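hi! just following up on the protien thing from before. the input was this:
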Amino acid sequence: MSTPQAMRPHGKDLPVLLGLQNPPYDTRAPCLQSPGPISPTRKQNKETTVTINCVTFPLPASMSEQQLLKPNEWSYCDYFWTDKKDPQANGYITGFEVLLQKQLKGKQMQKEMAEFVRERIKIEEEYAKNLSKLSQIPLASQEEGTLGEAWAQLKKSLADEAEVHLKFSSKLQSEVEKPLLSFRENFKKDMKRFDHHIADLRKQLVGRYASVEKARKALADRQKELELKTQQLEIKLNNKTEEDIKKARRKSTQAGDELMRCVDLYNQSQSKWFEEMVTTSLELERLELERVEMIRQHLCQYTTLRHETDMFKQSTMEPVDQLLQCVDPAKDRELWVQENKTGDIRPVDIEI
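and the predicted 3d structure came back as:
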């Protein structure tokens, strides 16, 4: 899956390319916890980030306004970065899962529309059958003169109308029902692929955040050990203290290097997850627009066929025509995003 070059920054360059500042990180925020009220101590430390479910975000009080990736529209790629509470369970659901659920619901709605058209076809076929049967009944066939001619023509019109309805049902099947059922045959396979891809990146991010926390603890332990050895030197407890301090300082330096390495790997993973989230959410957005436009076109075809079938009942289709002309995927997306968005603050790198 490719992303436009402007959309594929890495690490620290990402906020810069988006016209944003890259503030220092809160490297002590716990994973898998929501941020609580900031204590006076934390305020004094001027922490500027918080890590929630292993994704690092800038704190609102410390960040300058983030520019949207697509500022002129309500795009999926700008509003689904934060996890939300799962109403069906005790855990969380990611913003990307919210987008996938919308896609799955859309596919189900499309299937149900096809089922609706199938029922309409059955009604048309049954109606045509009954009209044809009625046209062949010999009632009043002995009527004579001009009245007899008019009566015969009336009966013939039933047969003609039956033929029109049969053609209508046939075209509904080939031009509306079948396309609705066959559109995006590999839909579920594609959604599963997207889901696994983003989930794997998120899993890697969780693992690398755990490594950061482990390395941070190791560094704290080494620093505490160094401090203890230094105190021992000051009171001259034994002759080996200076050598112990050298070893402790070396271990502390190694622990610091390991922490920096883990932080760098974490930032790389978060940057990759960010890029793929943008790319894939834009692809889901494109697929949703494609689905809505396809359905709109085939419903328009439905009304066209209906007009051709019964020119005397056009008024029953006019409201449908008017509403179909007003179908606006961008407006639908705006309303849906406003109701379902999980958070518009994008993640940033951890820094020491």
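The beta strands are 49-52, 55-58, 84-85, 92-93.
The longest helix spans residues 241-309.
cheers
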